[in-house]
Design goal:
Shape: globular
Helix content: 25-40%
Radius of gyration: 24 Å
Structural class: alpha+beta
Largest sheet: 7 strands, mixed
Number of strands: 9
Length: about 240
């Protein structure tokens, strides 16, 4: 669910009222709308929905009105996201017990696959350069990646890394944090441990995660592991080569 703060809503509501007056007196030539934003006139780009005629029905005017309102709201939301972008976030290697506690809290809030504090500590102590946290500008942990090197590597096979768990709090998603966490850990796997590839498991039903791994990061599905999760759901086993 998208939450719009009161400031953004007030701006939109004010603009919504102004648009009503604009639409009543819109320019028919070329269908270009001029609207007053603050103390400056801003020309909106031509939208396909705008007719190139001198008269229009009430329904058409409402379509114009709705289109411009949505465009304005999208613009304001984009600005709002930019103002709280990852420039104010910090990606840090796990270095404190507080980091581990924050990771566990984030995990419990977001995922059904949970771990004991001993398991987090095991990762941090054994592979201290592979797990990272994302902190907001107040130092709160809003995301993490828990990763390791695979210990049971068959003889003759190159070492590879594995992502045990990754999560970002809902209110901090769509800011690129998950990608940054993944890339940071992957780079450490390759540079420090000479990992040839990284592996992970993901629920077949988790479309958002699949989009990140496959479409954004370039992972490929290597296998389907039946009833991998405790509730019986299958998992995709995915790999990404770390060789340059």
């Amino acid at each position: 669910m998208l939450v719009i703060n009161s400031e953004t809503f007030t701006l939109w509501k004010d603009h919504y009222t102004r648009l009503q007056d604009v639409v009543r007196a819109w320019e028919p030539q070329g269908g270009r709308i001029l609207t007053l934003v603050g103390s400056k006139h801003q020309a909106f780009s031509d939208y396909p929905i705008l007719p190139l005629v001198r008269t229009a029905s009430a329904r058409t005017l409402m379509d114009v009105f709705s289109t411009l309102s949505i465009a304005f709201l999208d613009e304001k939301l984009e600005q709002a996201l930019s103002s709280t972008s990852t420039r104010k976030m910090e990606i840090e290697v796990v270095a404190r017990v507080d980091d581990l506690m924050g990771m566990q809290a984030c995990n419990l809030q977001n995922l059904p696959e949970n771990y004991t504090m001993k398991y987090y500590l095991y990762h941090a102590m054994t592979w201290p350069s592979l797990s990272y946290v994302a902190e907001d500008n107040k130092g709160r942990i809003v995301g993490y990646i828990l990763a390791k090197m695979e210990e049971e590597t068959p003889e003759g096979e190159e070492p590879h890394g594995h992502v045990t768990s990754i999560s970002v709090l809902r209110s901090y998603r769509r800011l690129g944090l998950a990608k940054k966490l993944m890339v940071q850990s992957q780079e450490a796997m390759a540079s420090i441990y000479r990992a040839s590839y990284v592996s992970l498991h993901v629920r077949k039903s988790n479309r958002a995660a699949l989009g990140l791994y496959r479409d954004t990061l370039g992972f490929t599905v290597k296998d389907i592991e039946k009833r991998y999760y405790a509730d019986g759901e299958d998992a995709y086993a995915m790999h990404l080569s770390l060789k340059s």
